[in-house]
């Protein structure tokens, strides 16, 4: 029995070594994947922040605030049409207080847009000049702001579907 046991001992030792190496490789893969996942998550959080505020690349003039997002507004018609608008504007990111106020006012900005654009029919909106609409929205935005003012609005999308 010693001879049989001696023959199995090197085979079992080889199998155990192989299993230990395999387990070590799995542990390294698990640890590496965890570290990669943590790093990837922190990068995606930074990217989400820059989706709201992205650098406009105009010699450091500011950043474009896009936090209002795309809004769909039903018109005042009996068979309502839809206005699709994406409003953004340039602001100074170094003014922390104003930047915070802008983020806190996103809901108010959206309500102003819905209230204003929703008060028109499709035909009335088609007759209006886009600049007139921007000026009125800008005036309304600035009346609720206390820590700074917006200089101009940008419409990335402005579609009237009727």
Please identify, by name, the CATH architecture of the largest domain.
2-Layer Sandwich
Please provide the count of β strands.
5
Radius of gyration: 30 Å
Oligomer: single chain
Largest sheet: 5 strands, antiparallel
Termini, distance in Å? 93 Å
The top-level CATH class of the largest domain is Alpha Beta
How much of the sequence lies in strands comes to: 15-25%
User: Structural class from helices and strands?
Assistant: alpha+beta
Total number of domains: 2
Q: What is the CATH third-level topology name of the largest domain? A: Tetrahydropterin Synthase, Chain A
Count the helices. How many? Answer: 5
| Unreliable parts | 49-59
- H/E element string? HEEEEHHHHE
What is the average of the pLDDT values? 84
Shape: elongated
As a percent range, the share of helical residues equals 55-70%
């Amino acid at each position: 029995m010693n001879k049989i046991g001696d023959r199995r001992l090197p085979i079992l030792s080889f199998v155990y070594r192989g299993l230990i190496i395999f387990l070590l490789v799995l542990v390294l893969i698990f640890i590496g994947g965890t570290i990669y996942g943590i790093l990837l998550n922190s990068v995606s959080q930074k990217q989400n922040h820059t989706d709201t505020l992205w650098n406009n690349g105009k010699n450091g003039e500011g950043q474009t605030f896009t936090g209002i997002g795309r809004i769909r507004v039903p018109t005042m018609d009996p068979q309502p049409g839809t206005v699709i608008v994406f409003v953004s504007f340039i602001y100074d990111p170094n003014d922390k207080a104003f930047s915070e106020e802008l983020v806190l006012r996103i809901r108010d900005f959206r309500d102003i847009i819905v209230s204003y654009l929703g008060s028109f029919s499709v035909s009335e909106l088609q007759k209006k000049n886009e600049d007139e609409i921007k000026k009125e929205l800008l005036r309304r935005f600035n009346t609720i702001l206390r820590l700074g003012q917006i200089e101009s609005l940008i419409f990335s999308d402005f579609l009237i579907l009727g």
